[in-house]
Amino acid sequence: MYNVAILGFGVVGAGTAEVLSSNRDIIKSRCGEDISITHILDIRDFPGSPFESVITKNADDVFEDPDLDLCIETIGGARIAYEFTKRALSKGISVVTSNKELVSTKGPELLKIAEENSCSYLFEAAVGGGIPIIRPLYRCLAANKVIRICGIVNGTTNYILSSMKDKGISYDEALKQAQANGYAEADPTADVEGIDAQRKLSILSTIAMNGIYVSPDEIETEGISSVSLDDIKYADSIGCQIKLIAYFERIGDRCAAFVKPHFVNRDRMIGNVDDVFNAVMVEGDFVGETLFYGRGAGSLPTASAVAGDVIELAACKKSEFVQPWSVPASSVVVPFDEVKSSYIFWSIGDNSAFNGIDTVKLGDAVIINGITSGHAIELASKASSSVMNYL
Amino acid sequence: MYNVAILGFGVVGAGTAEVLSSNRDIIKSRCGEDISITHILDIRDFPGSPFESVITKNADDVFEDPDLDLCIETIGGARIAYEFTKRALSKGISVVTSNKELVSTKGPELLKIAEENSCSYLFEAAVGGGIPIIRPLYRCLAANKVIRICGIVNGTTNYILSSMKDKGISYDEALKQAQANGYAEADPTADVEGIDAQRKLSILSTIAMNGIYVSPDEIETEGISSVSLDDIKYADSIGCQIKLIAYFERIGDRCAAFVKPHFVNRDRMIGNVDDVFNAVMVEGDFVGETLFYGRGAGSLPTASAVAGDVIELAACKKSEFVQPWSVPASSVVVPFDEVKSSYIFWSIGDNSAFNGIDTVKLGDAVIINGITSGHAIELASKASSSVMNYL
Hints:
Shape of chain A: globular
Number of strands of chain A: 17
Structural class of chain A: alpha/beta
Oligomer: homodimer
Strand content of chain A: 15-25%
Helix content of chain A: 25-40%
Number of helices of chain A: 12
């Protein structure tokens, strides 16, 4: 018997309880252990819940239980979740989480505590919801140097961008509909301004850099709130879609890492990822391009990933794979304005002779169709509405 | 130091040697062990090879070495590879392979020998080349019951079908070009008749059935040699592509498993997988649809997957995850003619009022646009050229 506690009985916590109980037999046959939920910690009451008998408001019930094998942290945020995670790991109790904010901001410290106490801190569900991406990166692709990652890692923004295009509606209208359908929160800032994607890219970049920590603060980030319906229509007219892309690129011993709206050519697999779906393209030096696609959010898909981590630890007791993350003396992220990227430039009407694509860095002059732009491009300030990253 | 031998220094074996040596430092940092190639077994000479000093023709040099930790079997086929694999596993030496023929035909026996001798038999590279698919199925998606798998798992046939469409050429011409470009073998039978896909589907189906063995012999298989350019043009005209699909579907405690050319709607991600690329769509009861995409063949992508398995065993010594496969008393595969599937029916010209899609099983009458077909469909004998599976 492998005893687990769920910390936080919200959307993902409840989903995880459902997955672990519904497929209990399959799971037992796969990992050789019967996984039992012995505690659920939450400050709320859940009268009538099938798990009522194990729900508690007292953290000591959980952490002082000598038979507890593992905690599932689905509280979210970086305050209480941080305290509880430290408390568990310090006692040698492994923790599995879907909490991208906590992993991306406190990953180095928490992984160190796990290592010192011979337990594991796993977070497959923190990026891409149900999509397997963390474990494939750490293991299946372990023989590769990661050259590039392009991810659509936020379902809310992808849903909004897809709605704008499919229904021909404005950003404001699409956001309202997303909120009405439960795909965007009342305060949508973290999603639409790219903060959620920034956290996920911090995690992916750190793994791609072999454990050298890339903090969210180092990731230049722009959301989708200034993307107009005209931008989307123009993209469509040339066989592209606008997508919020979390981009990583290895540059020698350093890397580029930024979150920006991009024109993505529909010839690319990632240009066909619509609605709330997510996808992460990983390019390795030997494997070439791979892509991982699926539901990047939602109770049950995310719970599927959480449960996968739980099953691994039930089978192996301790994961041999999650490297400690080390904070480098100076940032390994090349500043955004020093990174050469592909940009698309366009204007409708008189200046359309200048429409095209060039690979430049901030401040460079741009040459398209033999025409040189008369001014340095000020991408950072988004002075012109007719320039965007291109993929 | 973790000592490995490579059995068979062909395309994949040589690629694996290259991957393990080129990224030796990265690999060491990821698994905590320095992986050293101490033997390469092949009957040929390789004068001037950087690995010349470890190449041997004498199998005893490999199997009698007390310091050997693991064998990489990249011989292919099910004869010598079978003998060597049994010899290694019987001595408690783990084996990693890309050999789909051997895994699909002898998997139950070889996994049992591995279990009895406390070692592992891993085969991530046997399906989908470099694409992570076996490990995600066993682990990341371990909490799910697998409902459905749709795979483009053979690069040669996908290249031929893509060429026919893009260049407007016949099957014979496309096959000739594929052979000239090194994408098809001189005897292309195993690829074009679907035998390679059948073997891979046997492996995927067995894992999806939780270790209940689905033999290649039980998988109804049709290749692409009878797909005409007219078929492809018609598919294109209605927004579809013709793809060779390896299909698995859970039906209660049993399953459907077949390899057939399918019309695939381009609205699906898998309808956009072209050239030599592979993709596998896996639908789980909780995660929903996921898709894994990348290079399904080739020396280095396949070697990347082989090396990923080697790294895992170097880190963990023994995998806790590969279930033994059990041969059921009677087949769990529902006979093809009892399986309800979606089919597309079409004819050009007078009868086009009957063009459409219906979900039926072999022998059923078909009703489209209110019109009932006057005859039972004889799909098995492909009596009509205007019917194909639809996805």
